[in-house]
Write a structure and sequence with these properties.
homodimer; 5-stranded parallel sheet
Chain lengths: 522, 522
């Protein structure tokens, strides 16, 4: 999931992380100690005789278990669902989606390419933790196309509502910005060459359009004979400024520059869940699936977990020296637990920061976005509720594919979609998609949707500490140290929230904490 | 090959294509008639009884033959080499590279991933001609990573010669440019939001650094616990301006914005020659390989071709109603031919515009650029002679790969490399590569190189009409109409020189010309 998109994007808009960091520094919260950039090294057998209850078999739970079991810890993994992965969830033909008030079945045809990453869907090249496990466990990776300049940006209030190619907006924006910059540039001309190159300016430092903006149609592309290519008229910068003010579209304009979204992006071949199944195999497969945690007890210095085996209907009690609790905060807040009051309060406040996020997927054949619109992978954006439309990065020029017809991470829109029935979401996503691709409704097939706010055992998309003023500085740190035997891990316990990498880094941090306690005899 | 890189890049630097077009307009050369955006539609049997000699089985020759044979033309394809593809050439274990004064054998291990696209190596998403043939002929495509923000830019004279991550230069350049632009922005503040977003500026419109610039090392990446990430200090814009002035590095800074290099880029799975072998199969495989054209004769209104069967040592005479001559101009200029004086002169002048281009490839295991440098695909740049270092887009996180250790399209540097022996090129490429990756020499294995200026039947990389003032306006048009029975096709006969797409578009144009003649009885 693309937390970075919203979070980091907003920070950039509000005044850059640089400024945020300076503010934090002024608050006395820096300098930052450097902890666990990579996996902690636990001596073999260092965990012998120690037990850990791992709550949740998502990335954080699986990675914690892998490291702990390798060091000789006895781990019990309790997972409420009947599958590993949590919000790493790949849907294929025949799969079932259960939300709190609806059940869907994926009814597109069975095909290795026809999968839908309903949750996590991409990996950054600097997500060294998760990439390391992919390498170690033999999960094949391929490029994920995050940036496609042929994809579209659409906004009802500009350009008569007509979608514009991203290349055109980008080129004309750069041209106009460079032209403005040239007026304030040093008179010695030392920046003139750079600005000309930056914005494709003329010798006299003006922008008159550029091939960078692309050509309107194949009939005006540079080709053979006398067809040299016909440039488009530059879009006025004022129009682009209005795009920038429209809901999420500021992100569309600079998305590719951000730390977590910049190329190279990657994906596992065959679906994101390849990672969790590889981890599940690596830990020996021992996960108690269908075990829903009902109580988290403090038993002296140890912990007790009361869970319910959903299929058998029985209650299971687990005792352990330590707990790695990876349960998302919106779920955890409602579980009876012997947490300290400060921790319980932090869990409740943290739960309130979670975004919603809804995705709608469509099967489609042929791949008309390639055939008709020459869009190969990447993302189109709209100011309408669907936020984004993703085109598949794999199966290029094959006969069919899965479109993510809505990836709604803007909270209000995601919640508007969440209350709709699956059929209602389909209709709404088609109505919005029509603005990007006329005739869309007739060009998409079977659909399915996932509203993360309504998925049991998730009840939200990811933590957004940086959206609630002060949350990162006052709430998050409360959950960092152990509360007696209880350690908290997951994407929410990181500075890379909404990404598998955050879950991995958090698992590393937490396992390191436990190892230190064991070493110190605490 | 990346003609666009140099050509379009230079145009941008010189004052944008926009300005160039305006200039051309002033010269009375516009407006442009629209010709053959897609393949001409030839009625079945429309070519019955007509014969065509196709000289060269590269992309232009193969595509021309495909269309002509489908319409019933009798085509004789003469190809001097023993393989199809011309400058589309994929090298694998055991292959032989013959230049005018050297012979190399590719001696890395045999493996489907270990191929080296010595010539054409990428496809743009808007190269609709070549993509159409890939679709029609079932050539599987995958993303080609052209933009990797973790890749490097190195310049001896700046940053103590230390390579810098592209993300950092890009972010700091944007920040500084936006900050400059803000000083000239309208006082009504209408552009403030856009400029803040564009450059990651603070509220008061200054750039203090940003997460967009990336973090120096995994120890300072945002992670878990209290590791929030430590920003880097912005690089002064003056330093970046000096990078912009250094040889080819201006291209490095804006490469991704250009028409032919902007994402999405694609490559055939398994090597670029998948396309030419699919075309060869589609035309029925009938190509006279090893037939070197020695004379091109005018026989009344028809044509005669005298070729030498290199293996048999015999002379072969071919008569045809028309000729599609795709022989590169540096080769064609030395062939005895009954061209008109104006055409012969244009061929000689066009030949002089060809660039050199040299590539050096290294096998390497493990993929240390991923393991040690977290570089997944993409291109690093240096002001040194190797120009670029390409990391493979396929086989991500597998055990080995082929690095293009030098892609030298800067003409002077390419010619300096061309005169070196293969061993000399290897040593020179390692010396330059050391600046990007210390210890490089010990980390690369078997190598091979191709200097296109010394490859028989090519004698150059591609036509560069736009580098020679007036060449596009005065020389290129001379070769557009047929010279009696002789039609000229190939990348050089297009506005997409250096790309397979140019060859395809030119083939479409030429086949269309022939079909019109036949229809009109000329």
């Amino acid at each position: 999931m693309a937390a970075d998109l919203s979070r980091r994007g907003l920070l950039d808009v509000l005044g850059s992380v640089g400024a945020a960091t300076l503010t934090l520094k002024a608050m006395g919260l820096l300098p930052v100690p450097i902890v666990f950039a990579t996996a902690p090294v636990l001596p073999a057998d260092s965990g012998r005789g120690k037990s850990v209850a791992v709550l949740g078999a998502g990335i954080a739970g699986l990675v914690s278990t892998l490291l702990l079991r390798r060091a000789g810890y006895q781990c019990t993994v309790l997972e409420a669902r009947t599958r590993p992965g949590g919000r790493v969830w790949t849907l294929r033909s025949g799969d079932t989606i259960e939300e709190m008030d609806s059940t869907q079945k994926v009814d597109w045809e069975s095909d290795p390419d026809l999968y839908f990453n309903a949750g996590a869907a991409r990996l950054s090249h600097h997500h060294l933790g998760i990439l390391g496990y992919c390498r170690e466990l033999g999960v094949a990776l391929e490029p994920f196309i995050n940036d496609n300049r042929a994809a579209l940006i659409q906004i009802d209030s500009e350009f008569s509502g007509e979608p514009q190619r991203i290349a055109r907006l980008q080129a004309d924006m750069r041209g106009a910005v460079a032209e403005l910059a040239a007026r304030s540039a040093p008179i010695d001309g030392s920046l003139d060459g750079l600005l000309r190159n930056f914005g494709a300016l003329t010798k006299d430092m003006t922008y008159l359009g550029s091939s960078r903006a692309g050509f309107a149609s194949p009939k005006t592309f540079p080709a053979a004979g006398t067809q040299r290519g016909k440039l488009q008229r530059p879009i006025p910068i004022g129009d682009i400024a209005r795009v920038n003010e429209a809901r999420i579209l500021a992100n569309a304009l600079t998305f590719l520059e951000s730390w977590n979204q910049a190329p190279t992006m990657l994906q596992p071949v065959g679906g994101m869940d390849r990672i969790v199944y590889a981890l599940e195999k690596a830990i020996g497969g021992e996960v108690a699936y269908g075990h829903e945690v009902e109580q988290i007890l403090r038993l002296g210095e140890r912990a007790g977990i009361v869970s319910r085996d959903r299929r058998a209907g029985t209650i299971v009690r687990t005792e352990a020296d330590y707990v790695v609790c990876t349960i998302p905060l919106p779920v955890l807040k409602s579980i009876r637990a012997d947490f300290s009051p400060a921790v319980q309060h932090a869990i409740e406040q943290g739960a309130a920061t979670y975004g919603a996020a809804t995705k709608v997927a469509f099967a489609a054949a042929p791949r008309w976005w390639e055939l008709d619109d020459r869009i190969y992978g990447g993302i189109s954006w709209t100011s309408r509720d669907i936020n984004q439309l993703w085109y598949p990065s794999h199966g290029i020029q094959s006969s069919k594919g899965i479109l993510v017809g809505a990836y709604i991470w803007e909270d209000e829109a995601a919640r508007r979609y969440a209350v709709l029935s699956p059929a209602g979401r389909r209709a709404a996503a088609i109505a919005d998609g029509e603005r990007l691709h006329p005739g869309y409704g007739a060009k998409v097939g079977a659909s399915t949707s996932v509203a993360w706010s309504k998925v049991p055992y998730s009840l939200g998309a990811w933590a957004e500490w940086d959206f609630t003023p002060g949350a990162r500085e006052t709430i998050y740190p409360v959950l960092l140290p152990p509360d007696g035997p209880f350690h908290f891990a997951g994407e929410h316990m990181s500075y890379v929230t909404g990404w598998q990498e955050g879950a991995v880094q958090s698992a590393h941090y937490t396992v390191g904490q436990i190892a230190e306690r064991v070493k110190a005899g605490r």
